[in-house]
């Protein structure tokens, strides 16, 4: 037999779950209305992007920037190296570092499209908020963790998210209210069980913050030959420490990270600029055409020419629909 205290807690959980369900339904309706058509849609609110997709997808390779990702409807798989992160309308995804990933919408249909929002954030905003709240003292230094994680999407987080998206109906209120609500969302994330990951990313001299610097340097110079010694010196780490913490955050070595950036950029160049494989490989830093073809085939599953032809045919198919 349940005690009155246990019964009250159970009732509170049920009430919160019901409230979250109602909020998700409203959020889905808003995103559906503000998008209307498939694709990613920028909004009047800085850093807020809405998306709608009516069919499941093949994995899409891209580089995720730091962001808070929420699904109001549907589900998605995100692959980082060999690891898989799945989130849906009950769970959010946080990307704390710039990471090369493959994202795949796995639950979507014309009748029930995938509906999502992505709120990009700046590390400076997190650092300022963590400083105001003195969270650096609250969270002791911990070992580096993955720069991506999922969590439960509670009514506490859904509430400010809904208020933020509702602002799109009153553009005159966006300049004054959007920054306040965005700060509240970041606050809720920092106070979540995994919030310390964001705090440490922003803390000066933390391992996560130094790995963030290394990631930024690699992202800016991925066409150049990688000298790990030089990279370690620039972020004030030993080579062994850099390798250890870099892999802890990104699930790959600096060389593997650079390779993924190169291959993704080469693919983008071939598709968008109609450049051949030899020129694309050279532009992203490959000196050997055979090495480029070999690594491209291993990563994307088919040689450059065949892969790009398939992707262009998919694009034409979507346009004809």
From TrEMBL:
InterPro entries: Homeodomain-like_sf, HTH_AraC, Tscrpt_reg_HTH_AraC_N. Coiled coil: none annotated. Residues 212-310 form the HTH araC/xylS-type domain. PROSITE patterns: HTH_ARAC_FAMILY_2. SMART domains: HTH_ARAC. It comes from the Bacteria. It holds the Pfam family AraC_N. Keywords: Transcription, Transcription regulation. This is AraC family transcriptional regulator N-terminal domain-containing protein.
């Amino acid at each position: 037999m349940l005690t009155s205290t246990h019964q009250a807690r159970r009732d509170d959980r049920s009430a919160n779950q019901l409230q979250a369900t109602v909020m998700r339904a409203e959020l889905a309706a808003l995103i559906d209305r503000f998008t209307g058509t498939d694709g990613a849609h920028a909004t009047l609110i800085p850093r807020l992007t809405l998306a709608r997709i009516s069919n499941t997808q093949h994995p899409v390779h891209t580089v995720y920037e730091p962001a808070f990702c929420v699904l109001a409807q549907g589900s998605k798989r995100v692959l980082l190296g060999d690891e898989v992160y799945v989130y849906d309308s009950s769970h959010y995804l946080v990307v704390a570092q710039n990471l090369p990933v493959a994202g795949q919408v796995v639950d979507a249909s014309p009748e029930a499209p995938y509906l999502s929002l992505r709120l990009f954030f700046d590390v400076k905003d997190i650092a300022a908020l963590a400083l105001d709240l003195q969270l650096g003292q609250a969270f002791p230094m911990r070992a580096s963790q993955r720069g991506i994680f999922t969590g439960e999407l509670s009514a506490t987080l859904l509430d400010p998210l809904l208020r933020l998206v509702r602002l799109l109906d009153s553009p005159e209120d966006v300049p004054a209210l959007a920054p306040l609500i965005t700060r509240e969302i970041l606050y809720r994330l920092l106070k979540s069980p995994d919030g310390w990951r964001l705090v440490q990313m922003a803390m000066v001299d933390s391992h996560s913050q130094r790995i963030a610097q290394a990631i930024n340097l690699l992202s800016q110079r991925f066409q150049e030959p990688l000298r790990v010694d030089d990279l370690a010196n620039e972020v004030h780490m030993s080579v062994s420490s850099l390798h250890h913490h870099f892999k802890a955050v990104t699930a790959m070595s600096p060389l593997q990270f650079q390779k993924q950036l190169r291959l993704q950029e080469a693919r983008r160049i071939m598709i968008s600029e109609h450049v051949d494989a030899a020129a694309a490989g050279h532009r992203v830093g490959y000196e050997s055409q055979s090495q480029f073809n070999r690594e491209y085939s291993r990563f994307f599953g088919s040689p450059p020419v065949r892969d790009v032809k398939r992707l262009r045919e998919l694009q034409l198919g979507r346009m004809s629909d």
